[in-house]
Design a protein that fits this description.
With 120 residues, the chain is mainly α. It is built from 6 helices and no strands. The protein has a domain of 70 residues. The protein is elongated and about 80 Å long.
């Protein structure tokens, strides 16, 4: 939010001092991002304490559906609910420890390696 305020120097830092015009500026700035937010997967406390202050930039239908879900979580909503983003946890295959050599071991290799010759 500080970056937005910095770029728009006429906007006060305190949200309580924002005018309707300030909210419109924010809405226009975020216009392409707002439809991509999965509002209905945001926790109730985040809706009340973080999003409610910015309800002026949200579509009224979305805000009303969010309130409805807060009060009556079992009721259906009219807004489109996108499925939650899947977090794919890719597991790496288990390491297979292969034998270094079938003739000599790593210690013997270290003794005859060129690095050992130059270290002396």
């Amino acid at each position: 939010m500080k970056q937005f305020i910095t770029k728009n120097s006429t906007i006060p830092e305190s949200l309580e001092e924002w005018s309707d015009e300030n909210f419109i500026t924010l809405k226009v700035t975020l216009l392409q991002c707002l439809p991509l937010i999965r509002y209905f997967y945001i926790s109730n406390s985040d809706v009340m304490y973080k999003i409610k202050s910015y309800k002026k930039i949200l579509d009224k239908k979305i805000w009303n559906d969010l309130k409805k879900l807060l009060i009556l979580p079992d009721q259906s909503v009219e807004s489109i609910i996108f499925p939650p983003k899947l977090v794919v946890k890719q597991e790496l295959p288990a390491r297979i420890i292969e034998l270094f050599s079938t003739i000599i071991n790593e210690e013997q290799t270290a003794m005859i390696s060129p690095r050992m010759i130059f270290d002396k």
